[in-house]
Write a structure and sequence with these properties.
The chain has 367 residues and is α/β, with parallel strands linked by helices. Helices cover 38% and strands 20% of the residues. Strand 9 (254-259) and strand 10 form a beta hairpin. It binds adenosine-5'-diphosphate and magnesium ion. Residues 18, 61, 63, 81, 83-89 line the site of adenosine-5'-diphosphate.
């Protein structure tokens, strides 16, 4: 049974290798005999790379290589990386749409890789919601019928279907469009229908694979804002995939950065931007829209009695966010910094988290 301190999702030593006889060949290379519990490689990078090389040499495709992470209850966990880095494969393994070649996955403490089919179907229906970039609404069904579809499959009565569908349609801001057809909606509205459909079963766990990537920037930002308000209300445990660093910084509680099938860094948005582990992560961090025009005073918060480090660097109200960031880098800590006016009077406070969130949002000229 799940207990309260168990993470919502735990993936350990996950491998997904495509190709013939991949599972057995991976087991041989990892030295984990077939039929025993899946072994992990304890994040041993050299060993992982050696195994990868051998498998690639044999014509196999190791798409996910020894990936481990936890998602806490109510956490919004973002997986970010370039196209082809293995993001979708990871969540397909975690939701067991794909059978991973090795590793363990627990959802609320329950080992789902050994779950029977019937149990899996039940889990997917009741506890897990999924949204994809293209998920095919039924064109001949109204918005309400599309949203209520999972309930219909489950055999819920029509009156209750309608009322539950109306509730989630309201949540995603499509009230009044219940009887429209998908072709009558914009791209952003259709994506909202998909989100409503995935919410109608009230899942605890929510997988979203680049749900906003196909949308125009303005609509995308609007949906991100709505998504954050929705999450503030619903408090789901979420894995959200994106290849857009600004989106990741804006949404995430924590971000996992993937490259070539491996998670290279996990951290809060501020940790990723301030302490990138390598050049690959630093490159993403350098793409953050820097908010050259947005000023510290536009995002600082009142002091409210916060204890600030003595003698450390301070910020000025008129400083750009980009300049403020360099002060945080030089202070090398996660502590908030004071904002002081020309007379040395403290007028506000900025945390590194808030700064990075604001930078993710700010566009030059829009700040
Ligand atoms: P992302 O979602 O980060 O763009 P994917 O998880 O879709 O990346 O793909 C990771 C790698 O796995 C890519 O090299 C892709 O070509 C490969 N891949 C994905 N699915 C399959 C499959 N069914 N068969 C073979 N290779 C695959
Ligand atoms: Mg993908």
């Amino acid at each position: 049974m799940a207990t309260a301190d168990e993470p919502a999702i735990r993936a350990e030593g996950l491998w997904m290798v495509f190709g013939e006889d991949a599972k057995r060949r991976l087991a041989t290379e990892l030295g984990t005999a077939q039929g025993t519990a899946p072994g992990t490689t304890q994040n041993d990078g050299n060993r992982r790379d050696a195994v990868t090389e051998t498998l690639r040499g044999a014509g196999l495709i190791p798409a996910v290589r020894d990936v481990s992470f936890d998602v806490g209850r109510g956490e919004l966990f973002v997986i970010m990386g370039l196209s082809g880095s293995g993001k979708s494969t990871v969540i397909r393994c975690v939701s067991r749409l794909l059978e991973p070649s090795s590793g363990r996955v627990a959802i609320q403490g329950e080992d789902i890789l050994s779950a029977k089919n019937r149990r899996l179907i039940e889990l997917r229906r009741s506890r897990i919601g999924m949204v994809f970039q293209h998920f095919g609404l039924f064109p001949h069904m109204t918005v309400a019928d599309n949203v209520a579809f999972p309930l219909r499959v489950q055999g819920t009565r029509s009156g209750e279907r309608r009322s539950r569908a109306e509730d989630v349609i309201r949540l995603v801001g499509l009230e009044g469009r219940e009887d429209s057809y998908p072709r009558e909606l914009s791209g952003g509205q259709r994506q909202r229908v998909g989100i409503a459909r995935s919410l109608v079963m009230n899942p605890d766990i929510w997988f979203l694979d680049e749900p906003f990537s196909a949308l125009d920037p303005l609509i995308r930002r609007q949906l991100q804002d709505e998504f954050l308000s929705l999450q503030a209300e619903l408090n789901k445990s979420i894995v959200f995939i994106t290849h857009d660093i600004a989106e990741a910084l804006k949404l995430a509680d924590r971000i996992a950065i993937m490259r070539d099938g491996v998670i290279v860094q996990v951290g809060t948005p501020a940790e990723i931007v301030l302490n990138p582990v390598d050049a690959y992560v630093a490159e993403f961090a350098s793409e953050v829209p820097k908010g050259r025009l947005m000023k510290v005073e536009a995002m600082m918060r009142p002091m409210n009695g916060a204890a600030l480090p003595e003698g450390g660097p301070v910020l000025a109200p008129a400083m750009s966010l980009e300049d403020a960031l360099t002060r945080f880098v030089s202070s090398a800590g996660a502590a908030p910094l004071a904002v002081q006016d020309g007379d040395g009077k403290t007028v506000g406070v900025v945390t590194p988290e808030a700064l990075v969130k604001a930078m993710g949002e700010a566009r030059d000229g829009a700040g």
